Structure formats: structure tokens, C-alpha cells
Amino acid sequence: MCGYIRILIIYCFPILLFGQGYYNQENFGNRSMLLSGNVTGSVDDLGLTYYNPARIALVENPVFSINAKAYQFSSIRLKNIFGAEDKLNDSRFEGIPSLVSGTFNIEKWENHHFAYSFLSKQRSRFNINFSRDIESGQIIDEIAEVERFVGDFKLDNKENDEWFGVTWGTKLKDNFSIGVSTFVSVYNFSGSYDLRFATLDQLNDVNLYNNEIKFGENSYGIFWKIGLAWKLKKIDFGINLDLPYLELISNGKFRYQRFLSGTENGEDEFRYYDFKDIDSKRKEPMGISVGAGIPWGKNKFHFKADWHGKLSEYSRLVIPTADDGTEGFAFKEELRSVINFGLGVEFYVNEDINLYGSFSTDFSPIKTSANIFDLLGGEQREANFDANYFHYGFGMNFKLKKMQLILGTTYSSASGDFIDPLEFPDPDFEVPINGNPSNIKVTRWRFIIGLEIPIFGYELEFK
Prior knowledge:
Blueprint: H1 2-9, H2 30-34, H3 48-51, E1 64-66, E2 69-79, E3 87-95, E4 99-104, E5 112-135, E6 146-173, E7 176-201, E8 206-231, E9 236-242, E10 246-261, E11 269-278, E12 287-296, E13 299-308, E14 311-315, E15 332-335, E16 338-350, E17 353-362, E18 366-368, H4 372-377, E19 389-399, E20 404-418, E21 438-452
Antiparallel strand pairs: 1-4, 2-3, 2-21, 4-5, 5-6, 6-7, 7-8, 8-9, 8-10, 9-12, 10-11, 12-13, 13-16, 14-15, 15-18, 16-17, 17-19, 19-20, 20-21
């Protein structure tokens, strides 16, 4: 029977692959995406509301901008699933988060510059449904006593983080400006795990198992970004400070059920807990980014390095002790401090064409990651995808008569090991393992098509 249980379960692992905690998974702004976000000191589109709000003081005319439309193709390859030599490949094609922003002025404040922005900081969902109905003629020798096996597996994991922001900036000197972006974050994180199966043996005995976990976390708060920008003779330089997340409102919920009957040892099980309005927390550490844009003839190099602080272990959800005294459900997160860096290059071809190339790191800060397996397996069987990403960007900008066309692609990859986090309802169902960790390799291509069209005669220009 264990072989078919394994078939049902292995499809849940994509939830681990693009988990929260990484800092450079998303980029915003048409050219900023092609430069892999290496634009703290040199951003020249309205991605500045995110990368360095001080750069808004360099905007010559107000403009309305819509982020390039982009799609991604991601591929996942798993090896040595649950200690066996199984392999699994999975791929997805979907849209990615976007940015809408614009600048505006206030007449009485001539030396002050403003912008608004709406961006999807995180928008991901994994929804998997898998069923198997296996009759005796298809059942392998190791479970030959089973006449029929019926199983269903469902996994739903959803994470949304929508930001609504206002940016202000002003010049303190001719070559020095300061700016602040204030973003209101509306964050929702939810997941469910549902595994059910039934078997009929040769004696017409029936075994039933149902294990379901559901959780939800809502958080409303504020992110602040404080930027400084210098425009020197041969270099543009910038610093951006990300303040820790200020949570204003939060709540969570958790439900667990586990029903088991018909086992050989005769020990049936019935567990059901449903907790609502439980305490929850969301934390994001402080970060500092420094960057520079260095002209080389008509070309330009873009450098960036960023640091993000650590988070001591804390409970994302505080799950109460059950009425029957059962405890030990953990939903915790812990992050280490990391330093990332990157380089982007902008090549001048002629008056109408620029080429872009870039590279950036995205080192894992994850020591403990809150996910559905944290609830399922407990502290002794964590399944953290602790791997480093590397991002690459390529593209070009065409300047046409009345608009600019941005075309490009980005590529990301990561690989790492994880430990089997799963538990089975009875020792008889335990999956045999060879002791080796399982391995995941992730690749992701993103395809970008962007148009910049002047609105009401305005264009985006920098002094």
C-alpha cells in the first residue's frame, strides 16, 4: 500500500519551492526587471518607488506608467523522493506580479515630488488535486492482499501581498536628494492539506484514513522605504533603507482532523480541532541596499549590494493546546541575515536601441520556514527548501516615434536537498527509505513585453 500512498503525496512538494523569505524574487519597473533589480543608485523608471524613492526628485515631468506584462515558465525536478529512486518533473506557465504607478505635483510645494504606486509584492498559488483508483489486477506484490485502493490528495496554498503606496522626494542640494515611500500591505496566507484513502482487502475488510489540515493568516501593516540619491560627475549613487514591517492588525485560524479506522492493531483514531481568531504574527527584518550607476561612454554599469537582518524564531500562528491535551503543532519561522549583490549592464547600440544584461544573487535566509509541513510533520521532520537562487536578465529597449518597446527575459535557478517531512497513519504504511535526502532543482524563465507611451504629452525624463 505504501507505494500508492507515496504516489498521492509527492505532488505536494511544489509548495516548498518559491517560499516566503527570499528578497529578490520579484522586480518592478520595465528596465529594472531586465537589470535584475540592480538599480538602487540608478533606477530610471517608476520602479524607483520601490528601489529608491529619492530618485523621484530627478523626474523632469510627471508620467503614468504600467509595468511590463510578463509571464513565467517554471520547471521543477525532484529526485530520490522519500528515499526511493523516484523522479518527478512538474512545470507551470502563469502571469507574475506587476506594478502600476504615476507621478504628480502639488502646486504649493514646487520643490517636492510625489508618486503613487500599486504593486503585487507577492501573488502565488499552488492548487493540486490528485486521485487514484487501483484494482487488484494493477496492485504490486508488496500489497497483494489489497483488492482495491482508492485515494485522494488535495493541496491548496495561497499567498498574496498587495502594496498600496505614496512616494515623496525632494532635493536638499543640486546633486543630493532624499525620499520616502510608505506602503500599506494587505497580506493573506492560507493553505490546506487533505489526504484520504480507503482499501479493501481479500477478506472484505475496509481501512479508512482521512488527514486534513487548514490554516489561514491575515496581516495588515506598513512598510517604509527611505532613500538617498547622489548625482555626481561620473557616477549615480544611492542608498535605500527598508524599515522592519509594522504590523497593525493580524489574525489567524487553524483546523485539524485525523480519522483512522480498520487498522490491523484495531486502534481507531478520531481527532478534530477547529481554532478561530488565534494569535498570529508576521515579521520582516530591516534591510539596507546600496547601488551605483557608472557611465562608460554611452554605456552604463549598474551595481547593487543589499543586506537583510536576521529574525529570531517566532510563531507565525500560536496554536492552542487541544481539549484532549494534544499539543506540539508548530508553525514557526526563523531567518538568518544575508548579503546579496548584483551587476547590470546597459549597452548603447544606437539612438533607437539599448541592450541589457544582468546577474544577481538571492541567498537563502531560511533557517525555519513556516509551511504546511511544519504543521504536518513537526519539528523533527522539517522540510525547508534552503537553497540559493541566481537570477539573470537579458533584453532590449526600442525607442520608436511615439513610444518605447521593451522586450526581454529573465532566468532563475536553484537546487537543494530536503528531508522527508511526512508521517503515515500506521507503522504498516511507513514508506521504506534508503536514508539519502531528496533533491529539488528549480528553473524559471520569465518573458517580458513592455510599452511606454507618453500620456497627455508627458515623457519620463531624468535631470
